[in-house]
Amino acid sequence: MDIVTNFRTFLEVVHCGSFSAASRKLHISPSVVTSRIEQLEWNVRSSLFERSTRKLSLTDQGRRLLPVAQRIVHDVDDAISSISGNTNDLEGPLRIKVPTTLTAVFLARVLAGFQQAHPNVSLDVVVIDRNVNPVQEGFDLVVGMLPASYDDVLDVGLCPLDRFVVASPLYVAVNGYPQHPADLSRHRLLNFGPTGPIWSFEGPEGQIAVTVEPHLTTNDGLMLLESALAGIGIAIVSSYMASAALAGGQLVRLLDAFPVPQFWIRAQIPHSRSHLSRVQALLTCLRETFDPAGVWEKNMNR
């Protein structure tokens, strides 16, 4: 049995959530799907799925195999395309990871525009905030805020991203303005969980690090913003999230004498995928969108 075919069947079962749905998608019988999965399980000497009457889920071994299968199928498809003389590979799948809030308020529109321009490219978009290794987890491109800390990855800075300490006018009217980062210990703080409990500031004599005890911790940027708008406490938010509320007076900036270090919006691509035309096309789209001059933020709500 062709192991690449078995990998394709495995990926379809994962995508569809059941053997029967995968069989309909692949136009084969359920027994053939079962046979292919059993053959693959024999090859890897492990069960790949937890089978129950209610749902189908991956075992630990299945989760480890998933990115490997994705890479192998992608590489085989690319090799066939190259050997057959099809040098224009602006078609086929792209698996990408993007951050939640940036996607909700802006990036979803960018990706929709990309697919309108390239209708033969299919996107598998995973929306999460954690840092991922695109090589190990089978992504063609990831968008994030932290530099790559692993090998075999092309790390492209797209644009700087300012972050501000903010609160509502009501909050500061009741609780006052902090004059120094050390004053934050006397305030209610709203923390973005993925960045950790340490808030960093640039002071006249160097960096200042404050370990916070949050009144609220969340992994959702929009909830963080809404909580600040509601007067719950003080938050650090990205400029693209806060700009409209700051301009409208619903938020005020705090501690401007102690700026928060910039992040960079970054694209990270496995070196093994960077030659693909569809990957390069998406990278070009992102570079043109996230221009360093910050025009993208000014145009967000238009």
TrEMBL record:
Keyword rRNA-binding in annotation? no
What are the residue boundaries of the HTH lysR-type domain, all occurrences included? Answer: 1-59
One Gene Ontology term of the biological-process aspect is: DNA-templated transcription
On whether Lipoprotein is a keyword of this UniProt record, the answer is no
Molecular function terms, GO-annotated: DNA-binding transcription factor activity; sequence-specific DNA binding
InterPro entries noted in UniProt: LysR-type_TF_proteobact-type, LysR_HTH_N, LysR_subst-bd, WH-like_DNA-bd_sf, WH_DNA-bd_sf
- Which Pfam families does this entry report, sorted A to Z? HTH_1 (PF00126), LysR_substrate (PF03466)
Name the keywords, alphabetized: DNA-binding, Transcription, Transcription regulation
Family membership, please give it: Belongs to the LysR transcriptional regulatory family.
Question: What is the official name of this protein in its record?
Answer: LysR family transcriptional regulator
